[in-house]
Amino acid sequence: MSYTVRQLARLAGVTPRTLHYYDAIGLLRPSAVGDNGYRTYDDAAALRLQQILFFRELDLSLNEIRDVLDGPEFQTVPALEKHRRALQARVARLNGLIHTIDRTVLHLKGQIEMSTKELFEGFDDETQARYEEEAAQMYDPRMVQESSRRWKSYTAEDKARIQTEGGAVYQDLLPLLDRDPADAAVQTVIARWHEHLHAFYEPTPDILRGLGQAYAEDPRFAAFFTAMHPDLPGFFSRAIEHYVAGMAGRS
Asked: With a threshold of 0.85, does the pTM exceed it?
């Protein structure tokens, strides 16, 4: 079986840009490249992409994944068995998120009281930060090194504050989902999100736009935000697009 970039991207739930990037760094080469420059992938390449996505679920960096897959001791079946155990742990975390959602609904209905800390139980903001690093790397590979350097320089208190700030941005968007993404209140929250990213790296307009697209299209981002509200990924993406479009006028 042969797949085009777009076909394989659709099957795997990633973007064509991601496959182009994986090719550029030698993580997933196309099985063939036609005279017209079009890439195609065979079943072996599709299986390798499956392994890449499994390892991403385990939060390995792309360089680490490449080293593992290309290592002489890599075997597919033992790797799948390990993935299964890790995903069972992930299911437990998702069940924790569902519990938080259920409690939040009761809180909003006035049936129970929740502290701000309890609102964020189950969310893994460090994983979210790593996903954003990967998205930034697709636009400027230096960003990951800079992000890692900054993060390691922070104290435990700094890290807790940064994670709380990021979570607050997401939560503050939720009451605004019925508004136009261009609404002033929505854009104020997006400006806070933009400022929050400076804790990790210097976000260019291209990076901001790419993150906005990833929030709606990348399954990992989408799952993170959908756990808060099904409409949040698309709304967040549209609000970011409007924000970036207006950046030139603000500069």
From this structure: no
* The amino acid at 130: R
Q: Which residues, other chains included, contact 128 with Cβ-Cβ below 8 Å and sequence gap of 6+? A: 166, 224
The percent of residues in the chain predicted with pLDDT above 70, rounded, is 76
Contact indicator for 131, 221 with CB cutoff of 8 Å: yes
Q: Which residues of 170-186 are buried (b: 16+ CB within 10 A; e: fewer)?
A: bbebeebbeeebeeeeb
pLDDT at 15 over 60: yes
Contact in structure between 23 and 39 (CB atoms under 8 Å)? yes
| Architecture of the structural domain at 3-67 | Orthogonal Bundle (1.10)
Per residue in 91-116, pLDDT tens? 666 666 677 767 777 776 788 876 65
d(CA 38, CA 53) in angstroms, rounded, equals 23
Match 């209140």 to its residue by tokens: 185
Please list the residue range(s) of the chain that carry CATH number 1.10.1660.10. Answer: 3-67
> Could you tell me the two tokens for 17?
């840009």
